[in-house]
Amino acid sequence: MSNPMNIFQVSGRAMSAQLVRMNTTASNLANAGAVASSPEAAYRTLKPVFRTQFDKASGMATVNVERVMTAGEAPTKRYDPGNPLADAEGNVYESAVEETRELVDMMEAARTYQNNVEVMQTAKTLITETLRLGR
Length: 135
Hints:
By secondary structure, the chain is of the alpha+beta class. It has two helices and five strands, in the order H-E-E-E-E-E-H. Helix 1 packs antiparallel against helix 2 (99-133). The longest helix is centred in the C-terminal third of the chain and has 35 residues, at 99-133. The model has no long low-confidence stretch (mean pLDDT 92).
């Protein structure tokens, strides 16, 4: 039988999931406006897919990143014959990253991460205070 998860493991997994979310958002923002010579080569927005994991032994649930997948709009075709990446018809394909949405996602992920840091800090404080009572 496996050991039940504790609050530190639950928060740690949630923090890891939010870190993946922040990293994919940072990648999306870094590639906003990037152009390619074909729609297949153009950057596509990345999004993590989360999965809830329930621990029967402790009765707690946490989250895992199941996978990271491409999402969002198709690249935008733009006529730019002077661009060295232009295809034979003079078109380039620009990534369709919505910067505002990505910034909101980044702020939300950062807040969720910080909330889990505070959960761990509170649990640590409570454990420390409980140990002091036992002296």
